[in-house]
C-alpha cells in the first residue's frame, strides 16, 4: 500500500513538476486567447450592432416606401372610382330627349345599359324617375349614378398625318361651328370596318370642345365643305335651315362627254337598294323612289369631258352621282355609277379619285344671323388634271 502510495506520490510529484512548467505556457496561451477572443467577440458584437443599427434603417425606409406606394395606389383607385354626377341642363341641352343626351354625355356606355339604369331609378331628373322619351328642360338637374365609362381602346392619335393635316383644312371656325374642307377618301364618321372618321379626328384635335356633331354628310370619296356644330343650339338652327332649304351647297363635277347647255334640271326619283354584300346602291325609280331634284350649269368644256356645277335641291343619297349617270354623263372615277372607258382615260392622265367636290356652302349664322358663303378650293390633283385637259 505504501509502495503504491509512494509511487503514486512520486507520480504526483512528477505531475506537479510538469504542472509547474506547463502552466506558464498554458497561462500565456490562455492569456493570449482570451484577448483574441475578446477582440473577436467585441468586433463581432460591434459588427452585429452596426449591422443591426443599419438594418432597421433600411427596413424602415422600405416599409415607409411601401406605405407611400400603397397610399398612392389607394388614392389613385379612389380617384378612378366613378362618383355620382349631377348635371344642370342649360339652353344648349334643353329640348332633347334624355336618352339622346345620355348617349352623347356617356360615350362608350351601351344604350341598353342606360335604359336599364333609368328603369332602376339610377338616373333621375329633379330626383324623380323618368322615361327615355322625357324631354329635358332648362334648369333640370340630372342625377347619374356611379357608372364606369369604358375607355376607347383605339383612340385617335393626333400624331397621324391624316389627322394633323385636318387642321390645315379648316376653312372657318368660331365658338359655334366649324366648316372644313373634307379630304376625299375619308369617311365622315367611323364604322363599317373604319377605326375612325373625320368627326372622331376633329374631336381628337379639339379635346376641349364640349360637343362636336356633324350637321350633314358627304360621301367618303367626295371632298369639300362640311359643316360641324360645336353647340347644340347651332346644330338645331342649321338642321332647321336644311329642312327649310335655306342651305345651299354647290358641287363641282367633271363628267363624261358634252353636257347639253339646256340640261339644267334633273328630277328623277331615287330609291336605295341594299345588296346582300351590304353595299348600298341607288337606282332611278319614278314609281317607288323619293322625289329628287338637282340643278346643273356648265362651267367649262373640255375635249371628251365637261366641268359642271351641281346644286342639289333635295339631299338624297348619291343624288348627284346617279342624276349624272342617268343623264348619260357619269362623273369621272365613280366606282359605282361611272363609265369604264371614260374612267380609264382620266386615270391615264393621273386622276385617282372621284371628281366630285363640294365647292361652296351658303347658310345663315346661328347667332349673328349673317348670311355666309364658304368656299373650298379644289385639291391639287384635281387642278392638275384640268390643266392636262384640252379646252373647247
Tell me about this structure.
This protein has 392 residues and is of the alpha+beta class. The protein folds into three domains: 1-81; 85-144, Roll (Structural Genomics Hypothetical 15.5 Kd Protein In mrcA-pckA Intergenic Region, Chain A), CATH 3.10.290.10; 161-388, Pseudouridine synthase. It contains nine helices and 16 strands. It has helices spanning 2-80, 98-105, 111-120, 161-164, 198-205, 232-243, 319-326, 340-348, 380-388; strands spanning 85-88, 123-125, 128-129, 141-144, 170-173, 177-182, 213-214, 223-229, 248-256, 265-266, 270-274, 280-284, 294-302, 305-312, 356-364, 371-375. The strands form three sheets. Strands 5, 6, 7, 8, 9, 10, 13, 14, 15 and 16 form a ten-stranded mixed beta sheet that branches. A hairpin with an 8-residue loop joins strand 7 and strand 8 (223-229). The N and C termini lie far apart (159 Å).
Query: What percentage of amino acids are in beta strands?
Result: 15-25%
Q: What is the ordering of alpha helices and beta strands?
A: HEHHEEEHEEHEEHEEEEEEHHEEH
Largest sheet: 10 strands, mixed
CATH level-two architecture of the largest domain: 2-Layer Sandwich
Name the poorly predicted regions: 1-21, 23-42, 46-50
Task: Look at the structure and name the CATH superfamily of the largest domain.
Answer: Pseudouridine synthase
**N- and C-termini, Cα separation:** 159 Å
Amino acid at each position: 500500500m505504501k509502495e503504491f502510495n509512494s509511487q503514486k506520490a512520486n507520480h504526483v510529484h512528477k505531475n506537479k513538476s510538469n504542472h509547474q512548467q506547463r502552466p506558464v505556457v498554458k497561462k500565456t496561451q490562455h492569456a493570449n486567447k482570451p484577448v483574441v477572443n475578446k477582440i473577436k467577440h467585441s468586433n463581432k458584437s460591434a459588427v452585429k450592432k452596426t449591422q443591426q443599427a443599419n438594418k432597421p434603417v433600411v427596413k424602415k425606409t422600405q416599409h415607409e416606401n411601401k406605405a407611400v406606394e400603397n397610399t398612392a395606389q389607394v388614392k389613385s383607385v379612389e380617384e378612378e372610382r366613378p362618383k355620382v354626377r349631377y348635371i344642370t341642363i342649360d339652353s344648349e341641352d334643353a329640348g332633347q330627349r334624355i336618352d339622346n343626351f345620355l348617349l352623347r354625355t356617356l360615350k362608350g356606355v351601351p344604350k341598353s345599359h342606360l335604359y336599364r339604369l333609368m328603369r332602376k331609378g339610377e338616373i333621375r331628373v329633379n330626383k324623380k324617375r323618368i322615361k327615355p322619351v322625357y324631354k329635358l328642360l332648362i334648369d333640370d338637374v340630372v342625377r347619374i349614378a356611379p357608372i364606369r365609362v369604358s375607355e376607347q381602346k383605339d383612340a385617335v392619335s393626333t400624331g397621324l398625318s391624316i389627322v394633323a393635316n385636318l387642321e390645315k383644312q379648316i376653312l372657318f371656325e368660331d365658338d359655334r361651328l366649324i366648316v372644313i374642307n373634307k379630304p376625299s377618301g375619308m369617311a365622315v364618321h367611323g364604322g363599317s370596318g373604319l377605326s375612325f372618321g373625320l368627326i372622331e379626328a376633329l374631336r381628337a384635335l379639339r379635346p376641349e370642345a364640349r360637343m362636336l356633331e356633324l350637321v350633314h354628310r358627304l360621301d367618303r370619296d367626295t371632298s369639300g365643305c362640311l359643316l360641324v356644330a360645336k353647340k347644340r343650339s347651332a346644330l338645331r338652327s342649321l338642321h332647321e335651315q336644311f329642312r327649310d332649304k335655306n342651305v345651299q351647297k354647290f358641287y363641282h363635277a367633271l363628267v363624261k362627254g358634252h353636257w347639253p347647255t339646256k340640261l339644267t334640271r334633273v328630277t328623277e326619283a331615287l330609291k336605295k337598294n341594299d345588296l346582300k354584300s351590304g353595299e348600298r346602291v341607288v337606282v332611278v325609280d319614278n314609281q317607288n323612289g323619293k322625289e329628287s331634284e338637282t340643278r346643273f350649269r356648265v362651267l367649262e368644256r373640255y375635249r371628251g369631258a365637261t366641268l359642271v356645277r351641281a346644286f342639289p335641291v333635295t339631299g338624297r343619297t348619291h343624288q348627284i352621282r346617279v342624276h349624272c349617270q342617268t343623264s348619260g354623263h357619269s362623273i369621272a372615277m365613280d366606282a359605282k355609277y361611272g363609265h369604264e372607258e371614260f374612267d380609264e382615260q382620266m386615270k391615264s392622265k393621273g386622276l385617282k379619285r372621284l371628281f366630285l367636290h363640294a365647292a361652296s356652302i351658303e347658310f345663315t349664322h346661328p347667332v349673328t344671323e349673317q348670311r355666309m358663303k364658304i368656299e373650298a378650293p379644289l385639291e391639287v390633283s384635281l387642278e392638275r388634271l384640268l390643266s392636262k385637259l384640252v379646252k373647247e
